[in-house]
Amino acid sequence: MFRRHTFWLWLAVVFQLLNAVAHSLSFFITQVPTNETERQLLELMGNYQLDMGAGFHRTTHQLFTALSACFPLFYLLGALNNIYCLKTRVEPRVLRALLAIQAIVFGIALGVIIVFAFLPPIVLSGLVFLSLAVAFFLTPKTQ
Description:
Layout: H1 5-24, H2 36-47, E1 49-53, E2 56-59, H3 60-87, H4 92-116, H5 119-138
Antiparallel strand pairs: 1-2
């Protein structure tokens, strides 16, 4: 059972959806400062507007929110692509190509996350990359 590429691809879908949900939770949690330094930092991030040029004035919090919204969408797109391929039984040649692209993109994302993030996103992103890589290597080259 664990040798079938579809098992590993469904596992990747589960991890991708889990990653999307986990990273969406930050939109529902309010960060509470625990000391004066954190309070000042959160105040500046939420209220100080940077001049971005061309009439755009954004706070650091707004920029962070924009990037934080893209991360769950990135994982959701991967999961939906994989679900579509599994449901329509895409031929193995096409599936391998898609898995190669996803393994490269999610592998690069994992590298960035390892350098700049903390343990939970590293683990979840690592599980996505691992399951995509295994699915790629187990997918037959031809029908």
